[in-house]
Automatic annotation (TrEMBL), chains A, B:
Gene3D superfamilies: 3.40.50.1360, Winged helix-like DNA-binding domain superfamily/Winged helix DNA-binding domain. GO terms for molecular function: carbohydrate binding; DNA binding. Residues 1-56 form the HTH crp-type domain. Transmembrane segments: none annotated. Belongs to the SorC transcriptional regulatory family. Coiled coil: none annotated. The keyword Lipid biosynthesis does not apply. This is Helix-turn-helix domain-containing protein. Keywords: DNA-binding, Transcription, Transcription regulation. One of its GO terms (biological process) is regulation of DNA-templated transcription. InterPro entries: HTH_CRP (IPR012318), NagB/RpiA_transferase-like (IPR037171), SorC_transcr_regulators (IPR051054), Sugar-bd_dom_put (IPR007324), WH-like_DNA-bd_sf (IPR036388), WH_DNA-bd_sf (IPR036390).
DNA sequence: CGATGAATTGAACAATTGTTCAGCCATAGT
DNA sequence: ACTATGGCTGAACAATTGTTCAATTCATCG
């Protein structure tokens, strides 16, 4: 598109000279709608950058409360919205900020490929870090979900940072424990898993036990979910289910998983949980309380549930929130 | 006001998290209108900064045309609006940009105190240049006009740059030629005028001969204006009237002026005219054509009149403009 | 202690901005 | 040549943002 020039002109006329879309359209011989679209494009393309010169963080109180309650290294809270898509976007943006802050200039980053992590992608501005590598925490799952498969996810993540991406050539959940063992013994798989286990940073979603609270749980059969619940599972990180003490839930299902064990991933120093929603509060609380994860990216509603706090509001009467 | 913190929070929620004013109000326990006002304040306070990452200049063609036609060093063109106040604002903003670009880090800047120059003030962001001095081109006029007197103007200008400001202790127009001579011989006046004459940069308005086209002309009697017109005057710079050849108009009026002569101000290397409006086209054209001024800050309509150009429009049909 | 006036508030209104949708145009594939 | 297909357009509608104005609060002064 050679409209960069035009986008810039229109952006200047609107943001610097304060002209309305209609006035710009009249001046340049464009329709108002066209001007509106050029401006939206310009913002998406990053031609328009809005900076806030203030150290204030609107959700500082909730972030501090999370850090205090769970002894975290850091926490990121994003606003909640009635419209679920907007909340995904919002948390994704916070996740992108977290990544910008934490991704090192060299070393390895382990990634739990989940829809929460996928939500981060659209908000990553290219920022070259050629000397890092992104390694999946576990194998890939089959079908598409939310229009995103793990390959694509890892690739986009890598390309945003200009970094290497590794692939774990196995399903996240093999059909039998024996098949799982076979995959785990594959040299390629072992190598990649060793790399992930030695990572400096881990970013992963934390799933709950409800349907719709994670791609994986959704794919299990009713019997399998029942069994897991009976075994005390309250949530999972990349298919590794844990109980209220944060310990793994052994069993046939666990043996089918191709991916880092909870013990192995706990060896990674910096471990960020990206997770939100009422379905996931219990799982997330456990993961943070037991130290499985030591940082979190979540939304206001979830943060309030976790901390028991009521308000972000400054002075008097709070009203309905999101 | 200790609301800086709040302004920052609100600005973040709106511009970074994309929340509407209503949503922010609900979250923080404020009314929507209050949020709207906080955001407006934040923008005015510079907490919100909008940058356009593009080299495109919407009025490049007109600026280039002006530079080419008159052999100028540079030209600044701002959009015109149907609402006169908005056009003043617009040109004032362009003037501020011009100042940012041209005001040196050390030396002297001569200022023609006029309403055009006054329009620049609200758009100056503080930018310390402690080693420069602002010197008026001429004495001060008596009454308030557009709520701005020359003292105030010079003071604000100086304080925006953290610079020294000088004052010329005399009226711009003495009551008689003799009184004028007396003022000009005053040591303080001579000294300040000498300083102005040796300036590196000059910024001044260019007035036309109509009433309402300048504070000064407006203050003259009908007889005085008739006489000036008869003598061939087409405009003025700080009370120094000039004819179509850019030469001074001698006479009793000229002898009453306390301020730099046209010859003296022509010795300043960089001379910026800040002027716009149909009343001033003839005067501005003369000032630029004869080289009295060698840079200009004006609006689109005036620029079009000066260059004979029709359009800023890119492609096909242009429509009504401002 | 009440009067006065400036500053602040939010409801109602006005303007601007954003989105949807049906129609149009161009391209490519029969 | 004829028609799908997909992108592009702007009119109409919907939502958000900005402004005005009367009411109110609050501090100050008589």
């Amino acid at each position: 598109m050679e409209s960069r020039e035009l986008q810039g002109r229109v952006a200047r006329l609107h943001y610097q000279h304060g002209m309305t879309h209609q006035e710009i359209g009249d001046l340049l011989g464009l329709s108002r709608v066209k001007v509106t679209r050029l401006l939206a494009d310009a913002r998406r393309a990053g031609i328009v950058e809005i900076r806030i010169h203030s150290s204030s963080n609107p959700f500082e109180d909730l972030e501090t409360a999370l850090v205090g309650r769970y002894g975290l290294q850091q926490a990121w809270v994003a606003p909640s919205f009635a419209d679920a898509r907007r909340t995904w976007d919002s948390v994704g943006m916070a996740g992108a900020e977290c990544l910008r802050a934490l991704v090192p200039t060299t070393g390895t980053v382990a990634i739990g490929l989940s829809s929460s992590v996928a939500a981060i992608l659209p908000h990553l501005h290219p920022e070259p870090r050629p000397d890092i590598g992104f390694v999946p925490l576990a194998g890939s799952w089959g079908g598409m979900s939310r229009g995103m498969n793990p390959h694509e996810l890892a690739l986009k993540l890598g390309s945003a940072f200009g970094a290497r991406t590794y692939h774990l050539p196995a399903p996240i959940l093999a059909s039998t424990p024996e098949a799982g063992a076979a995959f785990r013994e594959d040299p390629g798989v072992r190598e990649t898993m060793a790399l992930a286990g030695g990572a400096d940073l881990l970013i992963a979603g934390v799933g709950g036990m409800d349907r719709a609270s994670g791609i994986l749980v959704d794919a299990l059969s009713a019997a399998e979910r029942t069994q897991l619940a009976a075994d005390g599972a309250v949530g999972d990180i990349s298919a590794r289910f844990f109980d209220t003490d944060g310990r793994g839930v052994p069993g046939r299902l666990d043996e089918r998983v191709v991916g880092l064990s909870l013990e192995a991933l706990s060896a990674i120093r910096h471990r960020v949980a990206v997770s939100f929603g009422p379905h996931k509060v219990a799982a997330l609380d456990t993961a943070l309380r037991t130290g499985l994860m030591n940082m979190v990216v979540t939304d206001v509603d979830t943060a309030k549930s976790l901390t028991g706090k009521t308000g972000t509001a400054l002075p008097g009467t709070e009203r309905k929130s999101g």
